[in-house]
Structures are given as C-alpha cells and as structure tokens.
C-alpha cells in the first residue's frame, strides 16, 4: 500500500498574497510534490475547504483584524503543525509600520472609519497562537519553501537559518557596499535567504528577511551614524519590512528618542 500523503493547507490573512506564489511558482517541482502531499485548502490555487484537518498549515499574513485572529485560532485547532510564511506572518510586515506611531490612522485615512474593523496593532501570527516553524522573507523564496517541505517529507526537523546575510554575500564574493560606498546596508543584522540580491546589484540591504540570530543592531546603527546619517535616518533604516520585530523596533525607538532630544 502506498504511504499516505501529507495533508497541507495554505491560508491567507492580511497580506498581498506574494508568499503564496512561492507554491504556485514551483512549476514542475509542484507537480512532483503533489505525489507526496495533498492540498486540502488553497484559495489562490482554487481549493476551498477552510476547516479541513491537515498535517501542516502554512499561514501567510499578519493578524491585523478581528477576523484574522479568529481564523488563526481556527487554523491552529485544525492543524498538527502551523508554519508562518513571510514577513507579514512572522513579524507583522509592512502593515505593522502603523504600530510605530500614535497617530489615529483610521481617522486620518478613511472618510468613514466606523466602517473599518481593525485591531490596534498589526502583529505576527506567533504573538497569538502557537507556531511550530517560521519562514521569514518578503516574499519567501521557492527554494526556501522546497527545502522546508523536503526536510519534513524526509522525516527530519527543519532548522531555518538565522545566519547573517553578510556570510552569503561574502561567499558570493560580492563587493561590500557598506565598505566601498558607505551605503547603510543592513546585511550584518539580517538573516540570509534572498541570496544577497541587493548587494549583488550594488545596493544596500533593507532587511526583507528579518533580523538574524544575535543581531548587534546597536553597533550597526552607530556605524550608520558614523557614515553621516542623521538620527531620524538611522531610525528609518530599521522601520521597513520587519519594523515590528523586537531588535528592529528597539533600534527604531532608540534613535527616535535620540532625535527627540536633539530637537528639544
Ligand atoms: S511577506 Fe511580503 S510578499 Fe509575503 S504576503 Fe507579506 S507583503 Fe506580500
Ligand atoms: S554589502 Fe551588506 S550584506 Fe554584503 S558584506 Fe557588505 S554589509 Fe554585508
């Protein structure tokens, strides 16, 4: 008797759907994968069975609305493993930028804010339910997704890398833009996964894959100030795709405080 297939679901909360494309963009690899897994729910792929019991639920998107929270809890109850995929699901993503301000954005943006239902903050999934694995990135890559699923199929416990982007950049023998152009590159505190895409094109990394393990953000931010960035610019370097991740959030507030003292 052939071994039973792994039942998986791909869910979406508040997001742009870019990470789900990592499944569809696998091409022929996806066809091979379908011999080993059965997709029970994947709206973007035309399969709708939200309450299916699954072995693995991949969750894209942040918890930004009461409905997101309800859905995340429902997904947890119906899944053996929950894997958050992408910046939105791991740290709140771009939409978490609003967490950094006390501004009432609903009032400021919408003519009828009473019709909009959203939580005060946008946050990652793990702040609300138990998450077994996290795949960081905006968006996650096909290789990341393939590698993760293959490890699970082989029965080993995936260990997503927390290595610093600089390691990957050096392995590719890229010229360092921080050293040669004085560009404020976040590579020393960002996890690898993108293949050092921006430095390859002579640009500074702006942190799509989130904080690495043991990031020394204090030191890098001081370095940015030494390059001539004013305090508000240093703060802004950490307020991008993963602004709600703890190390970047701390650094943002540190430099906002320095800026506030400077203008007193
Ligand atoms: S992490 Fe980026 S690509 Fe993925 S859903 Fe969020 S915004 Fe889109
Ligand atoms: S370019 Fe950026 S990622 Fe590459 S080595 Fe320099 S600081 Fe690190």
TrEMBL record:
InterPro entries: Hydrogenase_assoc-protein, NADH_UbQ_OxRdtase-like_20kDa, NiFe_Hase_small_N_sf
Listed name of the protein: Sulfhydrogenase subunit delta
Record domain NADH:ubiquinone oxidoreductase-like 20kDa subunit: where: 16-151
Gene3D superfamilies named among the record's database cross-references: NADH:ubiquinone oxidoreductase-like, 20kDa subunit
One Pfam family per UniProt: Oxidored_q6
Domain of life: Bacteria
UniProt keyword list: 3Fe-4S, Iron, Iron-sulfur, Metal-binding, Oxidoreductase
Keyword Ribonucleoprotein recorded: no
Organism for this UniProt entry: Zooshikella harenae
Cofactor section: [3Fe-4S] cluster
